[in-house]
Amino acid sequence: MRSIDRFGVTEEQLRALVAEGLRDGGDWCDLYFEDTAYHDLLLRDGVVGSGGYHVDYGCGIRVLKGEKTGYAYAETTDFASLKSAARAAGSIAATATSLRGSALQSATQPRGESQDLYPELVAWEGADCKGFVEFLQRIEAGIRARDSRVLKVVAILSYSVSDVMMFNSLGELTSDHRPLGSLSVQVIFRQGDRTENNTVSRSLRMGAEFISEDVLEDLVSRAVAGMDARFEARRPKGGQMSVVMGAGASGILLHEAMGHAFEADFNRKGQSIFTDKMGQRICRPGINILDDGTLPRSRGACNFDDEGVPGQKTYMVTDGVLTSYLHDRISAGYYGVAPTGNGRRESFRYNPIPRMRATYMESGPDGTKEDLIASVRKGIYVDQFANGQVKIGEGDFTFFVKSGFLIERGRLTMPVKDINIIGNGPQALADIEAVAGDLKVDEGTWTCGKEQSVAVSCGIPSVLIRNLTVGGE
Hints:
Blueprint: H1 3-6, H2 11-21, E1 28-44, E2 47-65, E3 68-74, H3 79-93, H4 129-146, E4 150-168, E5 173-191, E6 194-204, H5 213-224, H6 227-232, E7 239-245, H7 251-259, H8 264-268, E8 289-292, E9 313-318, E10 321-322, H9 329-335, E11 343-344, E12 353-354, E13 358-361, H10 369-374, E14 378-390, E15 396-408, E16 411-416, E17 419-424, H11 425-430, E18 432-435, E19 440-442, E20 447-449, E21 453-455, E22 457-460, E23 463-471
Helix pairs in contact: 2-3, 4-5
């Protein structure tokens, strides 16, 4: 079904809605139509005892005038309701002065040339839910078979399919079909009078082919991995020391402590530590940091962003130099550059803002993870972070270490727990001494919150940061 038919509107009506939005002198108007169906199943104590289903359907209309944004939405696509929303958005924006000659420009590919990064090979709609129940039960059985210390398993399967359509005052009409499957498994272990827990997840933009033996084996094996070390782990003595971050999930520190500070709205408003650093060296040569909307099946992939801009790969740091912020159409117009495909929103109820997609650092030339560890006399190796806090303006961050080891004389020794890694984003970038060649983009259920929530991915190769504060004893 064509998107324009799905939403029950004609191109003539789309043009009429834009005209209504611009009636009070607006500079720009765009429409965002959405039809999303969400499903989930919950397994607890060996039984799939609950599930959910809901639909989100409607259209958001944005009007820009100068620095003012007017936004309104309708939870229907009835033309009269849409026209009322367009009128409301235009009225909100009407009090502003005109844009200072930085009109938003075309950023889309011609129709028929768009990429498809996440084809739905087996449609979620009409898939066998009984098979999904059995799959969740097999995950629990596999975990219990591999570790006798398992006390409880909770597994959640969630999947959604979104159809979106975008139209703007330049006459650009784009659409996207977005499947997303996710599995999250939490396991509680008991050994004597102690308990430990582990949470693993997998999320990919694909159809019901996501329910596969490869995904089952991946989740089961990771759910029980490293539990002997968890029970042996102790809190080490803290202080200033070297930290080796393991490849993959450690990329959450890159996302939080550095990626947000590269988002153009923070820089446009002077709120980021990198506001005046464009074109400057911010880390050693050879380091490349990018935000990528083109990774096939990635949770952060975008055929088009939520402003109709094609998905693309954006280098924020090139050979150690800050070369780009992450732009939506508004910030791109302000800076006089092309949008980077980072205009994203949680749903049609929200205004698009600059958001990350899949943020990672490219592999480096400094050998393997083992080479980095061997170069450290005393420090910490971290392969999983948990909760963190970041101050965008100052760049300061604190992250809780979920799993790691003490490094002594170039070797991993005591497993560690209950410690924080504390530092400053720009300083941590400057203190990177070595980057291994083992980039891994993690496929967990990462969700980024910045006024609103969007699905993202993150990754990193093994990286040695020479000086961070480890909060221990």
